[in-house]
User: What shape does this take?
Amino acid sequence: MATKYQAPRGTFDLLPAAARSRAWVEGAAAAILSRAGYAPIATPAFEDTELFERGVGRSTDIVRKEMFSFEDKGGRSLTLRPEGTAPICRAYLEHGMQKLPQPVKLSYVGPFFRHERPQAGRYRQFHQIGIEAIGSDSPAADAEAIALLAELLAELRIPGVELRLGSLGSLEARRAYLEDLKAHLRAHEGELSSEVRERIEVNPLRAFDADDEGTRAAMASAPKLVERLEGEDADHFAAVRAHLAAAGVEYEIDPTLVRGLDYYTRTIFSFVCDRLGAQSELGGGGRYDGLIEQLGGPPTAAVGWAVGIERILLALGDDLGEEGGEGPVFISFDPDAAGLGERAIALATQLRRAGLAAELDLAGRSAKGQLKHANRIGARLVVLLFADQPAQLRDMESGEQRPVDLDRIVAEVAGGAA
RNA sequence: GCGGCCAUAGUUCAACGGUAGAACUUCGCGUUGUGGUCGCGACAAUGAGGGUUCGAUUCCCUCUGGUCGCCCCA
Assistant: This one.
């Protein structure tokens, strides 16, 4: 703690044990997503600030107060990406992906940045796994995306997960609804909490999330979007639900579900978990049929989601699927004998080329210290090199030891026992 | 961004306002190239800066960081 430098607020070092858990989560995701045809994509860690202002929405908390923005030497305003969808849509347009067979199915994993007050499960640099299916308005695309996230969370055996589903309708329907909702809020202004009152114009949907009694009472009689869906929006939502049922995904309709980003239309969903402390969402997403157009592209329907890796790990707690793996072969040598250190590294290299885990002393330890170290790192076998005697192969579990022919070392060691 | 709680070796914990201790880890030793158990030894800390006091790990303030709740969301 006496160190002068610390990882910046809200960031953390990924130490080996945690890195292993993370690799396991990412590996599970990669397998599931690639089987469904989602190909990996990576975009820069920062983008034009305007991409997020236009894409995410100026009225959102993310854009209003959570972005890490800075100016480069040319005077351009850049921002560390707070989310992944707008950048991928930008890449979709920039690389003319509308000429590819649609929908273009992409997956990503990487760091994102939001200037928030850190808490368990909430960081300033956090990591997400996500997918986007761009170029289809089919309800099957919504259902597939949701089913894949459900599949991932199930595969990781995360306890206490629930899926909340809702629909915002089309942009037009939503706009009309928002006017009605604002009217309702204004009519009940006296009962609302000050925060909600202040946000009537900015983000009236937020009022559904409020905790205070006055607001809740006022919201009980408020018009609800899912109940007003009509025409194609209603048909689309019904079809998504039918597809989800067919895929065996369980969910609960949440008429008050809202999302913090402005680009969502129609289907929205959220996977929540009761093990996240002050946080509740593991991951979520929805359809964003207007975003690409908003960014200057042709009208393009799309759907996607993101899930927080730290949230997954938090929900999993200590119940991680740890794997032991086989211990390495350790090459020990008499540190006082000339040339043995070189032979040891040559031997280790040879074993590694043969695909075997092999280590040797890098700390100038005594012969005794080397054995001790071999034991500590869980070595399964130790090769002992001497200046004037044949090499020995020691089985660390049984303690048995016998001379070994170094010309046949790979075969001897690959066999397992000494 | 708002409120509460917290901050001592690498880690987990001690110490009435009066000499900062321990356990685990790491490194070394227990002689004659050989691990685990055991014994001995060494390294190693009051997050930073102010204030009160003869004296502050302990009380007060600011900052930094963590954490819980709010907010927000992944």
Q: What stands out?
A: Chain A has a mean pLDDT of 89. The CA atoms of residues 1 and 339 of chain A lie 42 Å apart. The longest strand of chain A covers residues 104-113.
